[in-house]
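Extended Data, panel c. Modelled sequence:
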Amino acid sequence: MKTAKSKLEDAYTDALPAIERICASEEDISGPLFLSIPEGYERTEVRLMIVGQQTHGWPDVSIGLDGLIQTYRDFDLAREYHSTPFWQASHQVNEGVNPDGPERSFLWTNLVRSDQGKERPNPEVENTLSELGLLEKEFELLAPDAAIFFTGPNYDDRIRQVFPGVEFHKESSDVARLTHPLLPAKSFRTYHPGYLWRAKKRGVIDSLVEAILSK
């Protein structure tokens, strides 16, 4: 029987030709974010998935499947620049819900698989990438217990496209709980941490930890 890791790599392999065609026909499209499952993920008490917007520069698709997965593995959840708001918040959530768990053991993925010139791709590219169904496959195969979408309201339409029928339940002015069959019960959408830090709303991260830990 195939493992979740091998099934996920099969999904990436199937999607790669379409991504290569996008990269050949559009300028400045980065290679896609392909996950490598952290060694400690299965041993955490709360398996956490962090969902960002899109990459901000990533290697070219020409390095192939193995190269892209190795890039994710070597990046090691931003070991070299943990100081950015996104990574501060991501590690804070994981440490809050898994205080005794292995370090660097959560999953990081993105709502949009690639960037374009370090920014959000044009709508046509974004639609094509989303139609590959890779985010849905990651949730299905890796079965997180909780998910935080650090995407902000400007990406809500993309969430609706990826997860048809998803419902947004307002928890506060900054947080919405998401419900959908593919998402864990503890799924939340909030602003990108860059905004939360500028707006002096770091307490949102503490509230997310509390929400995940609540019964």
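Residues 4-25 form the longest helix (22 residues). This feature is highlighted in the accompanying rendering.
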